Every structure is written in C-alpha cells, then in structure tokens.
Amino acid sequence: MHRFTSRGLAPACLAIAASLAFAAGANAQGTGKIKVGFMLPYTGTYASLGNAIENGFKMYVQEQGGKLGGREIEYFKVDDESDPAKSPENATKLIKRDQVDVVVGTVHSGVQMGIVKVAKENNTLLIIPNAGVDEATGPLCGPNIFRSSFSNWQPGYAMGHVLAERGMKKVVTLTWKYAAGEQSVKGFKEAFEAKGGKVVKELSLPFPNVEFQALITEVASIKPDAVFVFFAGGGAVKFVKDWAAAGLKDKIPLYASGFLTDGTLEAQGAAAQGIETTLHYADGLSSPRDKSFRLEYAKAYKLQPDVYAVQGYDAAQLLAAGAGAVKGDMSKKAEVIKAMEQTKVDSPRGTFTLSKAHNPVQDFYLRKVDGRENKLGAVAVKALADPARGCRL
Ligand code: BEZ
User: Fold this and answer.
1) H or E element: which one contains 270?
2) What are the boundaries of each domain within the chain?
3) Number of H-type helices and E-type strands within the chain
C-alpha cells in the first residue's frame, strides 16, 4: 500500500489534503455540527429493530433541544440490510464519504464485525446500539468501540442460571446459525451446565430462514425438560406462532433471550402468552425514569417502546456524555472517550456503567408475557458483567 508523507507531495495534493483535513476537522474549528451516521437495518426481518433504535436516539437528542455538547446534530443513514457481505463497504461510505464523527450501528452480529473492523482502521468512534457479538467487547475491543446494549453472552447466561435454579436437567437449544444464536447458547450453556444441567442437542438453521417445522418436530421427538431459543424481529413472530401451531406450547416449556418477545407481541398474540425470557429491559419497571421515557416515546411515535428503542436512546446518552465533556469538539477523541467510559447512564432500564471493555454492566430481568407486555417478574442476575474474554484495554 502506498503511504503518503508530507515530504514530496505535489502542491495540488497538498491543497486537496488540506481541504479534506478541514472538512473532517470542521468541529475542531468550533463551527461544525456533530455528524452521526446510522448504519442500521431498514429492510428485512430486523427492519423494525433498526427503526426503533433510530427513534430512541433521536428522541433523546430532541429532549436536549436538538443539540449535544452545544452542537446541532446532522444525520446520515445507510440501510445495512442485515447483510454481512455489504458491511465494510457501507461502513466505509459513512466514514470516508460522509465523514461522520460517530457511527451508530448496528443490529446484526455478523454485520457488526465488518463495522468494528472499519471503525478500528479509521479510529472512528462507534456506538453499538444492539448487536451482541461477543468479539466487539472481547478480543476486538478498542478504545473507540462502545456498546449501549448487551453482549450475546449476557441474556443467555441469565436464562441458563434461571433454568438451573429451577432444577431443569435436559435442554435442547434452537437458534439461527450465526454469532447471535451461537453465542447466546454458549452463555446459556455456561451457566446451565455449571449447575448440573445438560444441553443435549443444539439445533440451528441459517439466518434469516423461517422454515422451522422440521426442527420443531425434532425438538418434540427428544422430549427435553425445556427448549431455549434465540430468534428476533420478524423471524421471532413466525417461530412463536409455529411453536404454538405445532401443539407444543403447553407440552414443552419454551424459554428464550428476551428478543423473542420484544417488539413482537402484537403480531404474536395468543401464541406468546406465558413465555418467559431474560433481558435487560422489561415492562412494568415503574421507575419514574422509565415511566417518563415510555410516555414521551408513545407521544412522539404513537408506539410503545421496546428494548431496541431503549438501546438507541442510551446510545445518544453515551454520545452526549462524550460530546458534553468537549463542548461538542469531537476532534478531542481522548477526552470524548474518557468521558464516555466514566459516565453512568441514566437509562430507562435502570442506571448502568460500562465495563473496562465498554459493555454495559446491568441487571437482567426475568419477564413473562402477559397480554401485550413482557411483565417484570424478578431480577434474574444483578449487575451482570460480560467476562470480556480476550479484551486487552
Ligand atoms: C444480533 O445479531 O446480535 C442480534 C439481533 C437481534 C436481536 C439481538 C441480537
């Protein structure tokens, strides 16, 4: 690869370089808006998740009068289509073409891997508002990589703990075959098997396939004590309906990380009633913070918020902590990062801090579907920190 140094650059090149540096460093002059690049799925099975994240983020910014650190926000958007193959190119568009100060993305763990790589290469601030891929706050952690959501390990671990406590012994898992499903199962297994349970079979199908029938039949034939699954978005709606239609709803207890029933209950209807899940958000937390968030969100978007909206809202809160510390001058990267690392996020889910690897340390709730709500049951695991294996920060 050719490397430029200032020595030997032709004058025309110098002029171009100077103008680019000015464009990229506009905020350093004290005049620029903060450029936020959303890289989210706006089509496909995760489209509603991407929209909720954007809604939550923008709502927080609106609550601050449209400014963070005293600067207005300019938004850029790319539909990542939950397609890992397009991820590096899409992330590069936001960073190189649009010159964003921060990338906010994404939902899908496979797509996230591409964004992390490009953000690290360019030293661009990245806030992950959903994707749980363990590597982002594990071996690929970095000073500029932050998460406002969870690691895949966390909700799985919480449910493994719950089922072991309930004395279950023999569980089958069923997920999409990509990092989110596989790492959820890993977390589940770690907690469940440490306390004497056994995962007797791990079943999967490619993302985003929804041909569940043969796998549902296979689960039934094994007759486990319970099944643990990871599905989300449109696929979760179909799975829950297929499970009930197969007549298994009252035969084999179905447990999951909370994505199975978050933002999906209207479409799942009766098929979802009674399903128990673990997640870092629940209906009925009833803190003043959560109540006002829900009220404002319903007013602004004519929708009930879900976990994705909360994560988007908190991504904006994280950015606000960084931008506030430098009065909006996002070129002061070290100061932005330090402030983000040290902040306590006053989230609707409950206040959380970040681990050394920049992942939320947070409570995981046990919830049960009742009507259109994932009603809070208990705290399944308090202040659960991802082990951040392989992170050297
Ligand atoms: C993921 O791919 O990491 C993911 C997608 C939807 C919900 C939760 C996790």
Assistant:
1) none
2) 34-150+285-358, 153-279
3) 12, 14
Residue 209, exposed/middle/buried by CB under 10 A (0-12, 13-18, 19+)?
Answer: middle
Indicate the top mutation candidate among 51, 133, 152 to test ligand 1's pocket, ranked by most ligand atoms within 8 A of CB: 152
Residue 31's pLDDT is 55
Q: Identical fold at 34-150+285-358 and 153-279? A: yes
How many angstroms separate the alpha carbon of residue 4 from the centre of ligand 1? 39
**First-last CA distance in the chain:** 28
Centre of ligand 1 to C-alpha 69, Å, is 30
Give the global pTM.
Answer: 0.93
Tell me how far apart the alpha carbons of residues 59 and 347 are, in angstroms, rounded to a whole number. 13
Chain segment 328-360, per-residue pLDDT in tens: 999 999 999 999 999 999 999 999 999 999 999
141 vs 147: CA distance, rounded Å: 10
Give the binding-site residues of ligand 1, using a 6 Å CB cut-off.
107-109, 130-133, 152, 180, 232, 259
Task: Determine the atom of ligand 1 nearest the C-alpha atom of 132.
Answer: 3
Structure token digits, residue 186: 């890993």
- Averaged pLDDT of the chain: 93
Look at domain 153-279 and name its CATH class: alpha beta
Asked if 254 and 248 touch (Cβ cutoff 8 Å), the reply is yes
Pocket test for ligand 1, best of 130, 147, 278 (most atoms within 8 A of CB): 130
Residue 9 CA to ligand 1 centre (angstroms): 46
Architecture of domain 34-150+285-358: 3-Layer(aba) Sandwich (3.40)
- Distance (angstroms) between ligand 1 centre and the Cα of 180 equals 6
Report pLDDT digits (tens) over 16-63: 333 343 334 444 444 599 999 999 999 999 999 999 999 999 999 999
What residue type is assigned to position 388 of the chain? Answer: A
Q: Which residues contact 392 (CB under 8 A, 6 or more apart)?
A: 141
